[in-house]
Specification:
The chain is built from ten helices and twelve strands. With 320 residues, the protein is α/β, with parallel strands linked by helices. The chain has a five-stranded mixed sheet with strand order 4-3-5-12-6. α1 crosses α4 and α5 packs antiparallel against α10. It is globular. It starts with a helix and ends in a 26-residue tail after the last helix.
Length: 320
């Protein structure tokens, strides 16, 4: 079954409320359109349209599945457009985190154009950015590494519901998140869950974060994966959770943000590429600088103390 052709018949019929008009819109014969609809109904296990009346109406199942069908067709259209663009110009795909600043990524695209390089930004989770370099689907990627070995680092903190106060956020230590007893006695105040985005669900961060949580005396059940970022933000802005994230990401949604006092919990990034002719990745300095800005990297400075307990002493050369 040509799924896209069958979905096009389904969407066109839902839009036109008529098999004949839908067939005219798609430029095919009505019997062919009807066969595609019946095949799709057999595939989904239910009727998509009620044919008992003069005007075709969409069934409950048809209404439920319609937005998903539109989404598939929209994605297919974007895929075709990307393929056409790639045929006319060699696009170098860049794997980036989902929380990059769009304006900074746009500056990187313009900088590439000025140098005769067509870049394409692809938002991917950490593991897919790394595998993309290995299989050749990415020309460059921002890779997560331990902060003390990174080209640049990004401070992490906790986002919470917005408040009316404009006081500067002081550094927050995990120990301060332990349950507190009420001033008037009684049971401890129920603490908010702390959500961790997919960008921080990587071994180089999870191990040291787990150690920091244990040292702070926080219960393991207090920390959990955030799931979809939109859901995590909704819970955070509603005052029902705390979200581990960067300051630019929190400010973008008007959330309150406080930096973590433990610099060993910063994000570390390197910009990498597949090995070049000399066996080493060849990454333009201008691209590294702009991608560092896109993820909110810290500025220049001495970061000799940036290490987790038990790690070997090392220094971080911060750029961005």
């Amino acid at each position: 079954m040509d799924l896209l052709a069958h979905l096009e018949a389904y969407v066109a019929t839902a839009d036109e409320a008529s098999f004949s008009r839908a067939a005219d819109r798609l430029g095919i014969a009505q019997p062919l359109l009807s066969r595609r609809i019946k095949t799709l109904e057999g595939h989904f296990g239910g009727l998509l349209f009620d044919r008992s009346r003069r005007q075709v109406t969409t069934t409950e199942l048809g209404v439920l599945l319609l937005p998903y069908a539109r989404d598939v067709l929209d994605r297919a259209q974007r895929l075709r457009q990307a393929a056409r663009s790639a045929r006319h110009a060699r696009v170098r795909a860049v794997g980036v985190p989902a929380d990059c600043a769009p304006a900074a990524l746009a500056r990187a695209l313009r900088a590439g154009t000025e140098r005769g390089i067509t870049l394409g930004m692809r938002e991917l989770p950490p593991a897919e950015r790394e595998s993309g370099l290995s299989d050749g689907s990415l020309a460059y990627a921002l890779l997560r590494v331990a902060p003390e070995r990174a080209a640049f680092r990004v401070p992490l903190g906790l986002a919470s519901a917005p408040t009316d106060t404009r006081e500067a956020s002081r550094a927050l230590h995990l120990e301060e998140l332990r349950p507190r007893r009420r001033r008037t006695g009684g049971p401890p105040v129920s603490p908010l869950p702390l959500l961790v985005l997919a960008e921080d669900q990587v071994p180089c961060f999870e191990d040291r974060f787990a150690r920091a949580v244990a040292r702070a005396g926080l219960p393991e059940g207090r920390i959990g994966p955030a799931g979809p970022a939109a859901d995590a933000l909704t819970e955070t802005l509603a005052g029902r959770a705390l979200l581990l994230c960067t300051e630019p990401y929190a400010r973008r949604y008007d959330a309150r943000w406080a930096p973590l006092g433990d610099t060993a919990l910063h994000r570390g990034y390197d910009v990498s590429a597949p090995p070049g002719p000399r066996g080493t990745p060849d990454v333009p300095e201008w691209l590294t600088r702009l991608l560092g800005t896109a993820v909110g990297a810290a500025g220049h400075g001495d970061t000799a103390g940036l290490r987790a307990v038990g790690d070997a002493p090392s220094r971080l050369a911060a750029r961005g």
